[in-house]
Specification:
By secondary structure, the protein is an alpha/beta fold. The strands form six sheets. Strands 4-3-5-2-6-7-1-8 form an eight-stranded mixed sheet, sandwiched between helices. It has a seven-stranded mixed sheet with strand order 10-9-19-16-13-15-14, with helices on both faces. Strands 23-22-21-20-24 form a five-stranded antiparallel sheet, covered by helices on one side. Strand 14, helix 17 and strand 15 form a beta-alpha-beta unit. Helix 30 packs antiparallel against helix 32 and helix 30 packs across helix 34.
Length: 935
């Protein structure tokens, strides 16, 4: 090539090579045995030029190379680099990677659980740790040159996302920020914001996957490609479209049912197998097919923890073995080494032997309910190729470096905690992004299992869409407010919050809304002209008609409200043992009241009452179901039909207990006829003076006699609707301008009322609040101020502090939680009372929990488990009574240890609470909770 160059061209090329060799990037590139991609080189050059970078690239594309270059650059320049990650498991993984490259003496780790070599020039940490450092003005920030924010798209997370924005806003200007994100559709918008708050920031977006991804559908024994190339265009495989059409045509017809020919589900399934050979293969069948086609290792995503565990058992029962004898021996050796610190008596409780059997066969589950040590072992074995089939929940897709050759999606629907919803294109991209290991696989494979009613076109839309917008979840919290005022004063704090990404996005949205307002105003002019009447002011006439309609609606609403109030009053009078008839709803019929469900501390205007929507009686139905009913089930008042004694031995969770009591209920009250709903009440509109006045005014108006009155009225109604919509848009514009600052003002006002802030000064109480992080920071601070925990023992304090962190996965209000007795029970009651006071105060200051600000109600569901564990009870006994997976138990205990540490730091030093909080943390941090696997 150089022979074809002129001497001048060769000289110029030699100068370019010499200049490149003089950069920090040249020796960095030599550390890797593969060539860097163009986007990685572009980002590294921008970093070396002193610019910040935002790198948005697909999962598995190697964007962490850019983060590692920031580490290399900082060390080369004698500066520090902090590498932040969203979760502890990722921090542990990145720590191990950097230790292998730079040595343990140059790399540290800081998470909620571990502190290793924290003064090292390179420290890996969770994002919350860096946020806390910034607010505390830590000395560790001296000499900081670069901060890497891995998985920065986490700022969309509604629970933790605000932390990322806090760090970005508060980092010193001298620090260069490296933001690494999954592929997002608004990377340029996020980059514009970074440019505004951090200075010169280069946005580098790569859509290219280093390992091509093939999309498939597995139906029966055959794997179909989702797409086919036709005339240079990618189209849905016509075979799949024909299969979907054919399967739908095989469904039993209405005529067959009408002729008395019911088609059972089993018969239908058999017919499918015999005639069409289309069915959803079982989990063992899927793994066998993938194995036969050389598509292992594979991750199968199942949106259920229980489903993941069941999948492993199904594969074991089917006799699947994916490892040979030598691999089995290596698995056993590694597992025994990693779990050697776990006592033998705990192994059986943790399901160790069943777990080990699956691992030896190359099969494992991976979900948040597993012990962290078990999850880390699965990850390590998978990366080593000793586990070839993993059944995982979607949490595995969030950052952990566990790429596979294939990814399988059982269904395209998941439970979001409230209802079943379709997965979004962004979620599909995130999940399937695991397929294809760089440097190992030539291609990756995403496999979706055939399901009845599947629409191949909709699946193609999911697979072909790359819409994953980054949306800010930033909201000022109480802790944030006192820390900001402490450092910057009120005015400067307000200005800082207005630089958030949340406000940046809101301000941009205002431009589009303003354009719509202008278009609406043009439309209003046209409607006003169309409704003009030659007899008089039709706008005035239309307003009279509208006032009449509104008044009639208001009276009807008042009547409905009165009936609801009467029904609520009747529910308040119910007592345990009352037999009632539920008038409507899913559980209509005879029912026995077990608990009246009247909220404690009801008072006028208490928001807790509104939240519960009146009494919610817990009943046993005649169909043996124990259910918590709502006011919607009682549109009319309810009267007790009979009284029954509820046996003291009655256990709502026991099917036998429910069966026996329901039988007694039917015997006692089965003869009662259901009451009739009252109807035919006289309408209040008949006697209403305002309605009479409006009707008279309408009849007397000149426009009432117009021949085209109803045509004009239709235009007037359109005018009114458009006018109403325009006012709403104008309110949205007002609402989106300075939204974050206005929320801060409300938070500031509440904290001032409570004595935490005084002008630009943070009081002693405020300084205590500044050391408490978490959803219930203000509640914890108020408990310390009121001395709620002063007389508690360490174990009782552990039980109370658990209510600050624990939150049940699903709302199960059928039974009140078990709590320790004595002082702990009293203290927990006081915590709920204080929360009620704060809740009312938040309502007064218009602080809304639905907007991500405010204090949720403390959850007492973990108090008994925390108490028993701190008391020293065995893991077996605690888990059996708590009915909780080991992984969840460990996670809540570690969060409890963290909050106990905060309480110890915030409480008066040398006092009882600080001392007992440290003792409580030591008591909780034992056995299975204390196992860590770093290094």
């Amino acid at each position: 090539m150089t022979e074809d160059m002129s001497p001048a061209e060769r000289y110029a090329a030699a100068r370019v090579r010499a200049a490149e060799q003089a950069t920090a990037l040249a020796p960095f590139r030599e550390m890797y045995d593969f060539e860097l991609d163009a986007f990685q080189i572009e980002a590294c050059k921008a970093l070396e030029a002193g610019k910040g970078v935002l790198v948005a690239a697909p999962t598995g594309s190697g964007k962490t190379i850019v983060g590692e270059f920031a580490v290399h650059l900082a060390l080369a320049r004698g500066r520090k680099c902090f590498y932040t990650t969203p979760i502890k498991a990722l921090s542990n993984q990145k720590y191990n990677d950097l230790v292998k490259r730079y040595g343990a003496e140059r790399v540290g780790l800081l998470t909620g659980d571990n502190s290793i070599n924290s003064d090292a020039p390179v420290v890996v940490m969770t994002t919350e740790v860096l946020r806390n450092m910034l607010y505390a003005g830590s000395q560790a920030l001296r000499g900081l040159g670069h901060v890497v924010m891995d998985e920065v798209h986490y700022l969309s997370d509604r629970f933790r996302g605000a932390v990322w924005e806090e760090v970005i806003i508060h980092l010193p200007d001298s620090v260069t920020l490296v933001s690494l994100s999954a592929t997002v559709s608004n990377a340029e918008e996020f980059g514009d914001w970074l440019d505004t708050v951090r200075g010169d920031t280069e946005v580098i977006v790569s859509e290219h996957r280093p390992v091509p991804l093939w999309q498939h559908v597995l139906a029966g024994r055959r794997m179909y490609d989702l797409f086919e190339e036709r005339n240079g265009r990618r189209e849905v495989n016509p075979d799949l479209a024909r299969m979907a059409q054919f399967e739908n045509s095989r469904l039993p017809s209405f005529r067959d049912r009408r002729r008395g020919k019911p088609v059972r589900e089993a018969d239908r399934e058999r017919e499918r197998r015999q005639r069409s050979r289309i069915w959803t293969p079982s989990r063992p069948e899927v793994i066998e097919q993938l194995d036969s086609q050389g598509l292992l290792p594979a991750i199968t995503f199942i949106f259920s923890r229980a489903g993941c565990e069941a999948a492993v058992q199904q594969c074991l029962y089917a006799g699947l073995r994916l490892n040979d004898d030598a691999q089995r021996a290596r698995v056993r050796e590694l597992v025994e080494e990693r779990t050697s610190s776990i006592p033998d008596e705990d192994l059986h409780v943790l399901g160790y032997f069943e777990w080990l059997e699956g691992l030896e066969r190359g099969i494992a589950a991976h979900h948040a309910g597993m012990l962290p040590t078990f999850k880390e072992v699965v990850e390590e074995l998978f990366v080593r190729g000793l586990v070839k089939a993993v059944f995982a929940t979607e949490t595995l897709a969030l950052g952990i470096n566990m790429p596979a050759r294939s990814v399988v999606l059982e269904k395209l629907v998941k439970w979001n905690g409230e209802q079943h919803v379709d997965i979004t294109p962004g979620e599909y991209t995130q999940l399937t992004g695991r397929a294809g290991r760089r440097g190992i696989d030539v291609e990756g494979h995403a496999v979706v299992l055939w399901q009845r009613g599947m629409d191949p076109g909709a699946l193609a839309g999911l697979a072909g869409t790359r819409t994953y917008p980054l949306r800010s979840s930033f909201r000022p919290s109480y802790n944030m407010a006192v820390n900001l005022v402490s450092q910057f004063g009120r005015h400067r704090s307000r200005e800082l919050l207005e630089t958030s990404f949340a406000q940046f996005q809101a301000d941009r949205a205002v431009v589009g809304i303003s354009r719509k307002v202008q278009r609406n105003e043009e439309g209003l002019e046209g409607y006003r002209e169309a409704m003009t009447c030659h007899l008089g002011d039709f706008e005035e006439y239309a307003r009279l008609r509208r006032d009449l309609k509104d008044r009639e609606t208001e009276l009807a609403r008042q009547g409905a409200h009165q009936r609801r109030a009467e029904a609520a009053d009747s529910l308040e009078k119910l007592r345990p043992g009352d037999v009632i008839h539920v008038p409507t709803g899913k559980f209509a019929g005879l029912a026995l009241v077990l608990d009246p469900g009247v909220p404690a501390g009801r008072s006028t205007g208490h928001r807790g009452w509104d939240h519960h929507d009146g009494p919610r009686p817990l009943v046993l139905t005649a169909a043996r179901q124990v259910k918590r009913l709502a006011s919607v089930d009682f549109p009319v008042p309810v009267e007790p039909l009979e009284r029954m004694r509820i046996p003291k031995s009655f256990n709502p969770r026991s099917p036998q207990s429910r069966r026996d009591l329901a039988s007694a209920l039917r015997t006692k009250a089965g003869h009662h006829e259901p009451g009739r709903t009252r109807r035919g009440q006289r309408s209040e509109a008949v006697d209403d003076a305002e309605i009479a006045r409006l009707r008279k005014a309408i009849r007397a108006h000149p426009c009432h006699g117009c021949d085209e009155r109803e045509a004009h009225a239709r235009w007037a109604e359109r005018y009114h609707r458009l006018k109403r919509d325009t006012r709403q848009l104008e309110r949205r514009i007002e609402g989106r301008t300075n939204t974050i600052a206005r929320t801060f003002d409300r938070v500031y006002a509440l904290l001032s009322d409570l004595g935490y802030l005084r002008g630009d000064e943070v009081t002693e109480d405020g300084r205590r609040l500044a050391r408490l992080y978490g959803e219930l920071d203000l509640l914890a601070s108020e408990c310390l101020r009121e001395g709620v925990w002063e007389d508690l023992s360490p174990t009782e304090l552990a039980a109370c502090a658990s209510a600050l962190v624990y939150e049940a996965r699903s709302a199960d209000d059928a039974l009140p939680p078990t709590v320790p007795g004595g002082k702990a029970k009293h203290a927990l009651g006081e915590m709920v009372r204080i929360w009620g006071r704060l809740d009312a105060l938040e309502e007064e200051h218009r602080i809304n929990q639905s907007e991500g600000v405010g204090q949720r109600e403390p959850d007492l569901g973990f108090a008994w488990a925390a108490y028993r564990w701190a008391e020293g009870d065995s893991l077996d006994a605690v888990l059996r009574e708590a009915e909780m997976p080991a992984g969840d138990f460990v996670r809540w205990c570690k969060q409890l240890v963290d909050v106990l540490g905060q309480i110890a730091a915030a409480a008066p030093q040398g006092g009882t609470v600080a001392r007992n909080a440290r003792k409580a943390a030591e008591k909780v941090l034992r056995g299975v909770v204390a196992y860590t696997s770093v290094g």
